[in-house]
Each structure stands twice: as C-alpha cells, then as structure tokens.
Amino acid sequence: MRAYTLNTYGPDGMTLTDVAEPEVGPGQVKVRVEQIAVNPLDWKIRNGYLAEMLPLPLPAVIGSDIAGTVLEVGDGVDDLAAGDPVAGFADSGAFAAVAVTRRERLTKLPDGLDPRLAAALVTSAETAQRVIGLLAPPRRRPSSSTAQPGPSAAPSPSSWSPPATA
Fold it and tell me: Minimal CA–CA distance to 49: which of 40, 39, 58?
C-alpha cells in the first residue's frame, strides 16, 4: 500500500513509498483511511523534537488522526463491521492508505458527518474531553451510612459553575 514514511527527521524527511499493509489482530479494526488531520504532535515527531522521548525505527509511518471506512474487524470487535464510517486515532500511523488501531480508539460516525470534519475533530475533541474532566467537580461517593437509592451523587449541570480564576 502507499504511505508517507518518515525516513529522516526534518521537514524534508518524508517520502511517498510502498509499505506492507498492517494486519488486524484481536480487538483491532482495519480502516481505509479517507481523511487525515495533521496535529502538533505529528510535526514535532517529524522534525525530531521528540526523538529521544519517542524513538522510532525509521522509516516509520507517522500521524494519528483519521477518518475512514472499516475494512475488517479483529476477534472480539462486535460493534463495528466492514463499511462502517469511523474516526479516531491510528496505532499504525495515519499517513497511509490503510491503518489499524485498537477498537477503543475509534468512534462510529453519525450519519451526515463529513469525514474531513471528523478527522479534524479527533485531537480537539479528545483535548476538550480531558479539559472537561479537569474542570468538572469531583463526584462524591456516598458512604455506606449515607447511601440512599436514587440518582448519582454527581451534581446536576445546572448546579455546576466553573472554578474561580485569580
């Protein structure tokens, strides 16, 4: 299959080459890549800024944000099937015709969502989810003496306010 491979670190270190298509394993999904997004991590890896922290055997297919169509699912994946539109993070590298990734790193796209937009949302949506998790108040866990049946101890959205800033 065709893929952009990183052969040397730096802005001119990538070339379009033929590489072996990745195989799908248990708990994984093979995706025909239709759209990608380039995020800051990608160009930092390409330029070698993270070479000591994230060493790669070169040549390597890099990139993570994809949108595309499921080609094949591995054993244990029962909620996606060939032909399903998906977006998420590619474990095998996004800058290729086909990518393989763990099931939990993908989401099925709703009808009508443009794959270009879906690929562009992958990192920003994941970042937003992390920020919301940091800003949300901690959930109280009822003690055995105060536990009562009923709704969760988490505050309702209307009772939450963002933390005060200095």
Answer: 40
Distance CA 27, CA 9 (A): 32
Q: What pTM was estimated for this model as a whole?
A: 0.77
**Cα separations in angstroms, 78 against 50, 69, 89, 102:** 36, 16, 19, 13
- Using one digit for the tens of pLDDT, what is the confidence trace for 43-68? 999 999 999 999 999 999 999 999 99
Q: Residues 6 or more apart from 99 whose CB is under 8 A from it?
A: 22, 30, 31, 33, 66, 68, 90, 91, 92, 93
Sheet holding 2-6, edge to edge: 14-18, 2-6, 60-61
Q: In 10 A of CB 146, how many CB atoms?
A: 8
Residue in 105, 127, 123, 111 with CA at minimum distance from that of residue 65: 123
C-alpha 23/C-alpha 100 separation (Å) is 7
DSSP class of residue 96? B
Q: If we measure between CA atoms, which residue out of 91, 108, 119 comes closest to residue 28? A: 91
Backbone angles phi, psi at 39, to 5 degrees: -115, 175
